[in-house]
Amino acid sequence: MGRILAIDFGKVRTGIAVTDELQIIASGLETVATKELIEFLKNYTTSENVELFVVGEPKQMDNNPSESEALIIPFLEKLKKAIPKIPIERVDERFTSKMAVQTMIDSGLSKKKRKNKALVDEISATLILQSYLYSR
Q1: 105, 73, 108, 101: which is closest to 88 by C-alpha?
Q2: Domain segments of the chain as ranges
Q3: Which of these, 36, 55, 76, 131, is most buried using a 10 Å CB contact count?
Q4: What is the percent of the chain where pLDDT is above 70?
Q5: Which of 126, 38, 28 minimizes the C-alpha distance to 84?
Q6: Each residue of 41-80: pLDDT tens digit?
Q7: Per-residue CA distances from 93 to 10, 14, 39, 79, 89 (Å)
């Protein structure tokens, strides 16, 4: 079995989470500058066995795509061209950023650490991945 890698795509930063090889546990991996994301994923998939990419799908409350979906579509096309052997699935990511902040509060992190947007993105990617694992 290979790992599943989740992506919480952002205009500036992108949170990355990954499972263990048995696909049981989702863990935050890193936050990457979005402009370096494809290169990061190419390097990571060269050194690790990744079976699937799970990419957050931002939706509005009425189930329509959010504005940020317009940024994700071109990224998905680049990803398919750069790493064609790994399939991509989408997961509804509504409320993941709010849930990430709440997780940080519940964990007892200080206000200063909760303002770390890179950490919020990484936790959001972990929540997306955990949601995917629960749904299958």
Answers
A1: 73
A2: 3-135
A3: 55
A4: 79
A5: 38
A6: 999 999 999 999 999 987 766 766 667 788 999 999 999 9
A7: 12, 13, 24, 19, 12
pLDDT at 120 over 90: no
DSSP letters spanning 48-114: S-EEEEEEEE-B-TTSSBPTTHHHHHHHHHHHHHHSTTS-EEEEE-TTHHHHHHHHHHHTT--HHHH
The kind and range of the H/E element at 16 are strand 13-19
Give me the residue label for tokens 């990430």: 100
Q: What is the spatial distance between Cα 131 and Cα 121, in angstroms, rounded to a whole number?
A: 15
Write down how long the chain is: 136
Amino acid at position 43, single letter:
N
Chain position carrying tokens 């919020």: 120
The two three-digit tokens of residue 69, written as one number:
């979906």
Under CATH, what is the fold of the domain 3-135? Nucleotidyltransferase; domain 5 (3.30.420)
